[in-house]
Amino acid sequence: MKSRDIEAHLAEVYGAKVSRELISNITEVVVDEIKAWQSRPLDEVYPILYIDGLRLRIADNGVVGTKVAYLAIGVDLDGRKHALGCWIQDSEGARFWQKVIIDLRNRGVRDILIACCDGLTGLPDAIRSIFPDTVIQTSSINNGSAGMVSAFTCTTTGRAHANASPSRSTCRPVRPWWLRGVDRPARAAPPLWAVSAEMRFRAGLAIAG
Question: pTM, whole model, 2 decimals?
Fold first, then answer.
C-alpha cells in the first residue's frame, strides 16, 4: 500500500489524521527491521522443520490478487517453535522452495532431522538436494488419512500395524507413507502427523485473535 492509501485507511477506520511523511518514515523503519529479521543467523540444528505455502489476498498497486506466503517454522533443540522466515511469491513451486532451503542453510542451518511438508511435486527432492539426510514427513491430512486415526494413536507398533491393515480400504492408499514413520517414538507423533504449517499458522492467528 502507498502512503496515501494508508493515510486514507487510518482516517476511515480509526478517525486518525496521520501525515504521509510520518507514514513514510515509519514504513522505512519497519522495512529495515523486516530485512534484518529475514537475514538473521539461525541455529545449526532443527529437529523439526515445518514448511508450507499460505495463500493470501493481497493488494498490490491497487490491484487485489492471490499470492503465496512461503512459511518456514523450525522447532529448536529445546522444543520451542520459531518463525524462520516468510517469503511472498505469486505462486507455489518446488523451485522456489529450494531457494528457501538454500537461504536457511546460508543463515547457518547445518542439519534438519525431519521436514514436515505437503505433497507438492518435487518438494521432497528440493529439500534433499540441500539436506540429503533429512527425513521427509508429508502431512497426514494431505495424504487423505482420516481413516487411519486409530493407527496413529496406538501405543504399540503391533497394534498400529493391526489398525493399518492393507485390507482396509481407508488405509490402503496411505499405508506405504505411514510405514515410513510408524517406528518413531509415540511422543513425537503429535507434532509430526497431524497438521501442516499453514494449519498451525491459522490456528495461531485464531488464538491470537
Answer: 0.67
Domain of residue 129 covers 42-138
pLDDT tens digits, one per residue of 32-82? 898 999 999 999 999 999 998 888 888 777 788 899 999 999 999 999 999
Chain mean position to CA 185: 23
Give the whole-angstrom CA distance, residue 108 versus residue 59.
33
Do 52 and 133 lie in one domain? The reply is: yes
Set of cell numbers at residue 19: 501525515
HSE (side-chain half, CA atoms, 13 Å) at 115: 27
Residues 153 and 92 in one domain: no
Count the alpha carbons within 13 Å of 16 in the hemisphere toward its beta carbon. Answer: 11
Write the pLDDT tens digit of every residue in 173-194: 444 545 555 555 555 555 555 4
- Per the structure, the count of domains in the chain is 3
